[in-house]
């Protein structure tokens, strides 16, 4: 069932998103060669506690961490590790914040130290693809319009779009209907309506789009060891178009 959120629910989500954005800004300051992703996970736990929030994905279907930390060829749901990050790595930090019942979800790919030009292009194209998808998230458009905008842009830039994982509705639990694919045809799929809250979170690969699962049952990685980047925003569809809860560049 797809629910349209009330003004109160939207305000709760925005309050959670404000904490999430502040946390991502602090993560950007501490990510550098030598830090481990388990240290980042511990930092996030402390940051959220200090702000009266909790990591919603910890314990979700048995997931054991406050964040997902997906490194280089890991597409999503990477486990934090004690291995220090190295110069030239790229790492995606994904988290869901619960503040007084309001949820906020956002992933961001970070460059660790100095990365090569193709890595920079991968990150920039993935971020731009996210915003091209968001532009289509307005009343009267369809879900396919979002995916089509992302896919056509990313593929024209020489990258591929992961199809095994999608955006989703959110609230009151992490994953709600509808699914939001990052590929597809225009004018296809469910019609978007005012009050719907969704995530758009394209995962873009250097090589093939297909994924394979690690033995931990959570982490997906590319089949050819190409790197993957991801950017995710949570939005509410309004009569004036999409409002981004998790915007970091306000």
Automatic annotation (TrEMBL):
Cofactor note: Binds 2 divalent metal cations per subunit. Has a high-affinity and a low affinity metal-binding site. The true nature of the physiological cofactor is under debate. The enzyme is active with cobalt, zinc, manganese or divalent iron ions. Most likely, methionine aminopeptidases function as mononuclear Fe(2+)-metalloproteases under physiological conditions, and the catalytically relevant metal-binding site has been assigned to the histidine-containing high-affinity site.
Annotated source species: Oceanobacillus kimchii
Cofactor names: Co(2+); Zn(2+); Mn(2+); Fe(2+)
Protein name as annotated: Methionine aminopeptidase
KW Transferase (keyword) present: no
Statement: the UniProt record of this protein carries the keyword Hydrolase: yes
Chemical reaction(s) catalysed: Release of N-terminal amino acids, preferentially methionine, from peptides and arylamides
Pfam family of the protein (one): Peptidase_M24
NCBIfam families, A to Z: met_pdase_I
